[in-house]
Prior knowledge:
Blueprint: E1 4-5, E2 19-23, E3 26-30, E4 34-40, E5 51-59, E6 69-74, E7 77-85, E8 88-92, E9 97-100, E10 105-109, E11 114-120, E12 127-135, E13 146-150, E14 157-159, E15 165-170, E16 172-173, E17 176-177, E18 188-194, E19 199-203, E20 209-216, E21 219-220, E22 226-227, E23 231-235, E24 243-247, E25 253-260, E26 268-270, E27 273-275, H1 278-289
Parallel strand pairs: 1-14
Antiparallel strand pairs: 2-23, 3-4, 4-5, 5-12, 6-11, 7-10, 7-12, 8-9, 8-11, 10-13, 14-15, 15-18, 16-17, 18-25, 19-24, 20-23, 20-25, 21-22, 26-27
Amino acid sequence: MSTNTLNSPARALSQPRAVERLVAGQATRDGAGVKLTRVLTQNLQRRLDPFLMLDAFGSDQADDYIAGFPDHPHRGFETVTYMLEGRMRHRDSAGHEGLLGNGGVQWMTAGRGVIHSELPEQEEGRMEGFQLWLNLPARDKMREPWYRDIQSQEIPEFRTEAGVNVRVIAGQSHGVAGAVQREHTEPLYLDIHLPAGARFEQALPEAHNAFVYVYRGALRFESGCTVPQQRMAIFANQVGSDGVRLQAGDEPTRVILIAGQPLGEPIAQYGPFVMNNEAELVQAVRDFQAGRFAG
């Protein structure tokens, strides 16, 4: 998709949010041994409701990713996989299959249950990207599974007068609607590329939880806070706040900015199952063991 340049700047924020804290994430391995950093961990699920997990992965070494994620189940939430570089093939028990490539997104709604695999289709080169887990409201946890592969050229983009390039994966930014919209959680997912020293502002409802993850360069804030590469900044929930203001440091900076409407519902998680109470988790395990998942 071609990138449109915004000819008129958006209304400046009057009360941008402060940074509440920085998070480094935890180095781990998942799947069949894929090396990654778990940035949004389980102990932050309440604070960052409706988001359950964020993994960042990136390596030039095939041994760090080649084994991929063989067949595994999910129930009760959505996964959003954003591939910066590399090729990953998805297959699931409902008969869906797709190839995720450079700049592409896969948005999968596990709903009542799906078994799927994510396996690299490369034996060398760099593989880099993110996987975000987005909770479903209780009313939708047992809906039919659904997924969509979004190719890079299908993701709307725009460029500000300051030269900031923004890819709108979900939600809306500066009048540009993203590739995916969700009614209840209202997720915003932006990939923002800022030239050195450039500033970008994003309006947000004050009740939405929000965070930013820096994967190139660094951000600096008027408070003096600096967010270096491979760090997440959680934004404070402030009465009267109208959004977030980002500014790159002395080098080009790339970040993902994520925000959403909290569900305010109980969260019960057992591995790849996320429900609202323990009884539902027990039923999820029984259904999986009995082969009752989709397909």
